[in-house]
Amino acid sequence: MNRKPNTLPLAGRILVPRDRITADIDLTVTEGERIALIGANGSGKSTLLGALTGLAPIDRNSTITLFGTPLREVPLDQRHIGYLAQDGLLFPHLSAVDNVAFATGLPKASARSRAHEILAELAATKLADARPGELSGGERQRVALARALAATPRILVLDEPFAALDVSASAELRELVASAAARHGLTLLFASHDLVDVVRLAERVIVIEAGRVIEDLRVSELQRRPRSAFAAEFAGLARINGEIIDGAFRCAAGSVRLDDRFGTDSRAADAVPGAATLLVPAASVLPAPAEAADWNDRVVALLGDGTEVLAQLASGLRMRLPNSTLRVGDELAVRICAGELVAGF
What is residue 62's predicted lDDT score, i.e. its pLDDT? Predict the structure, then answer.
């Protein structure tokens, strides 16, 4: 594809037919930008990525362009989009080096030489002669990443590529993606259900719900001031709606006197009366003596792995504690040690 000068990698409206609805997403991506797509299962993340990579049909009314050319007019082999899915989809009968060589589009000898270079770049030289069935999950994904890079893409698309890996393999592959994107100046567009992926790899987050964009924000905003319920939950924040009255935040559970716990703009003297939302990380909610508590609450659900529990409280707050004797239905006084108070939400 001949790229037009000064054109965006992706820009416009993309319409993708689905079983029950049509995904309808406006997308503007600048060169070298790193974007995470988040949303519930079935929200349309994979549908969007599939349309970009040719795995899903694009409606003829789409206006989305790829470097200035209508996407539907660009042949798949000229899109310069590398793709890595949750399952690397390697050819089982080919060695790792031949899997990578296949994607280069070069004559056989040159293709294998280039494939060895890419495997070396990803510290995977020792895997070259192995077939996929002989590799671990992390090793297969490393080879699949090499194959995605083999055609010298300008955009790298990832659809939950770490989801099936253990913690160690995920961390290793995540760092390989980050370093490859930086080294080659790639534009990165990926879907994930993991906050660690988003914080490490992205600078911008797009929240998708029912095939529509409901929020578009920076990673720093995701961790501090997400507007949608899904983004708040994804970031591990409780989202408590209430109002500011007489220098306090009041909600159904009780009230909190405003002070610097909730940012410099939340001092009682500066607080503007009206609707507000309190965003609170689970680590900032602690049990407290009655005289130091913000309000009394009640445990409505418990999640845990044997060493730590996440208690869901009736107010909407969440609280992380070492595994304890807490039970559903227990009442407890809590103090909110830090949070973000946002007026007018």
Answer: 95
- Please say whether the beta carbons of 169 and 136 come within 8 A: yes
Tokens found for residue 190:
């990926």
Per the structure block, which two tokens stand in for 206? 């797009």
pLDDT at residue number 151: 87
| pLDDT number for residue 139 | 95
User: Which pLDDT value is given to residue 305?
Assistant: 64
Q: How many C-alpha atoms does 275 have within 13 Å on its Cβ side? A: 3
**Nearest CA among 260, 270, 275 for reference residue 339:** 260
In contact, 242 and 316? CB cutoff 8 Å: no
Contact 329, 299 (CB under 8 A): yes
Task: Tell me, letter by letter, the H, E, C secondary structure of the chain.
Answer: CCCCCCCCCEEEEEEEECCCCEEEEEEEECCCCEEEEECCCCCCHHHHHHHHHCCCCCCCCCCCEECCEEHHHCCHHHCCEEEEECCCCCCCCCCHHHHHHHCCCCCHHHHHHHHHHHHHHCCCHHHCCCCHHHCCHHHHHHHHHHHHHHCCCCEEEEECCCCCCCHHHHHHHHHHHHHHHHHHCCEEEEECCCHHHHHHHCCEEEEEECCEEEEEEEHHHHHHCCCCHHHHHHCCEEEEEEEEECCEEEECCEEEECCHHHCHHHCCCCCCCEEEEEEEEHHHEEECCHHHCCEEEEEEEEEECCCEEEEEECCCCEEEEECCCCCCCCEEEEEECCCEEEECC
When computed from its CA atoms, the radius of gyration of the chain, rounded to whole angstroms, is: 24
Burial class (CB in 10 A: 0-12, 13-18, 19+), 259: exposed
Q: What is the pLDDT of residue 264?
A: 52
Please provide the distance, in angstroms rounded to a whole number, between the alpha carbons at the two ends of the chain. 45
Q: In the numeric block, which tokens belong to residue 322?
A: 């070492």
Check residue 262 and give its pLDDT: 81
* Positions in the chain whose pLDDT score sits under 70: 1-6, 263-271, 305-306, 344-345
